[in-house]
Design a protein that fits this description.
The protein has 454 residues and is an alpha/beta fold. It is built from 16 helices and 15 strands. The strands form four sheets. The chain has a six-stranded parallel β-sheet, sandwiched between helices.
């Protein structure tokens, strides 16, 4: 609760945190809109494969052209300005840089940048949840060994959920469930970039004019992003997925304690201590009352009759037994809140959530019947969506991680709804991302937390 004071002290002492952003898309641009207002922070550089677009995004959110005139990261440090270019490795390698923000959304790139940051002893804020789920536990371990911090990105839902879980546990409560809300119907798993816009109330032309990426938006709709984010939460908190993954029960905020309690007690959970996503739509498509589509939640249990009475005395909404209650945050501000991670990592040396084990996985699953020879197109595309698996299950089955299901050729026919395995595709085992993922599976899978028998 003193981050602003610490930032102000750095500003007063003229010792700002030097920050580098890799990827100036939507999330990155939202951070850029706030970064210039943060005391004690110097945006040293922005690396993007489209520098002109990055420069335009900076100007669009209020940056003056003269502040973007640095010709190199070194000149940016000397003059207190910002360098913009394509060379992320040059930015990471500069000795003055303190914090790397990885916001490309591309898993192999995210892994490469994280490895470079660790090699150069830079803290990492991993906005790229896809990369985190693919190899985050191993990256976090390597960062710790190098004496730097690897962190999830505050403002994105996994970090906010991890914060709520930490709050509940620090206060002495057992966490029964935690997760987020989304708009979900089973049919959405088959959604493609061509069918996505009506679900958002947009025409293709409106989306085009707005510069919206149909594949990215489709990943939110088809269940992929939920699988990825809940895998990240499981890996960061120790909460476990259900054996069959996410159920997406329809649920409003007032029903969280009733719906998200064990099935043996009238709820929907497979076990206590579970990650789950609630839907803003009932299965017939009717909107849920007081939905949590944009927010996050934690459900916790009264440890005694006394605490149960306190719940009642202070007006908490509970399940019918009075034992289960919930706290929730109705919105998340995405990149607008990312400065919390930058400050926490750079000033306190503390992550805003980080993987501590390999417990959840996002597995490539066929959207339709697939034929040998087809090329998989990854997150939000036409061929596969991400399904949440417990890591023990995915490693036992040799499941294909969603983060590696892009631009790879299918070797076997796959039925719609069937999850893919490594053996089903022609995988290049020499790629850095593949090798790191394989290493993580070897190192972490034997110690993966056991789930209850199906």
């Amino acid at each position: 609760m003193n981050l602003h004071r610490l930032l102000a002290e750095r500003a007063a002492g003229n010792k700002p945190l030097h920050v580098g952003l890799i990827g100036a898309g939507k999330f990155g641009t939202m951070f850029l809109s706030q970064a210039r207002r943060m005391p004690g922070v110097h945006l040293m550089g922005v690396a993007d494969l489209a520098p002109d677009r990055a420069r335009e995004n900076l100007r669009r959110v209020g940056w003056d052209a003269e502040r973007l005139a640095a010709r190199s990261p070194g000149e940016a440090v000397d003059r207190g300005t910002t360098w913009i270019g394509e060379d992320a490795q040059a930015l990471i390698a500069h000795p003055a840089l303190d914090v790397v923000i990885e916001a490309t959304g591309h898993p192999p790139s995210g892994i490469a940048h994280a490895l470079a940051a660790i090699a150069h002893r830079k803290h990492i804020v991993m906005v790229n949840v896809e990369a985190d789920v693919l190899a985050g536990p191993l990256l976090a371990r390597r960062a710790q060994a190098a004496g730097v911090v690897y962190s999830l990105a505050y403002g994105d839902q996994p970090a906010l959920i991890a914060e709520q879980v930490d709050w509940a546990r620090a206060a002495g409560f057992e966490v029964v469930a935690a997760g987020k809300g989304t708009k979900y119907l089973p049919a959405y798993h088959a959604s493609t970039p061509e069918t996505v816009w009506p679900h958002y109330g947009l025409t293709p032309e409106q989306a085009r004019v707005g510069g919206l990426n149909p594949q990215m938006f489709n990943s939110f709709l088809d269940g992929t992003k939920s699988a990825i984010e809940m895998a990240a939460v499981a890996n960061a908190t120790g909460l476990l997925p259900a054996p069959d993954g996410l159920q997406f029960p329809p649920c409003g905020v007032d029903d969280l304690p009733r719906v998200l309690r064990p099935a043996s007690e009238g709820g929907t959970l497979h076990h206590k201590g579970q990650v789950e996503v609630v839907s803003s739509l009932a299965r017939d498509g009717v909107a849920v009352f007081r939905d949590l589509r944009w927010g996050v939640y934690v459900v916790f249990e009264a440890p005694s009759d006394y605490v149960e009475r306190c719940f009642a005395e202070y007006g908490l909404v509970t399940d019918p037994s009075g034992r289960y209650a919930a706290m929730y945050k109705p919105y998340h501000l995405i990149g607008l809140e990312l400065g919390i991670s930058v400050a926490s990592v750079g000033l306190r040396g503390e992550p805003t959530g980080a993987p501590t084990g390999f417990r959840g996985d996002a597995v490539a699953t066929a959207k339709r019947d697939l034929k040998p020879g087809e090329m998989l197109d990854g997150e939000g595309g036409y061929t596969v969506y991400g399904k949440l698996f417990p890591s023990e299950k995915s490693t036992t089955l040799g499941s294909l991680p969603l983060g590696l299901a892009h631009n790879v050729k299918l070797l076997k026919p796959i039925k719609a709804g069937q999850s893919l395995a490594y053996a089903d595709v022609a995988m290049d085992e020499t790629l850095t991302a593949v090798k790191l993922r394989r290493e993580m599976e070897r190192d972490f899978a034997p110690a993966a937390s056991k789930i209850a028998a199906q």
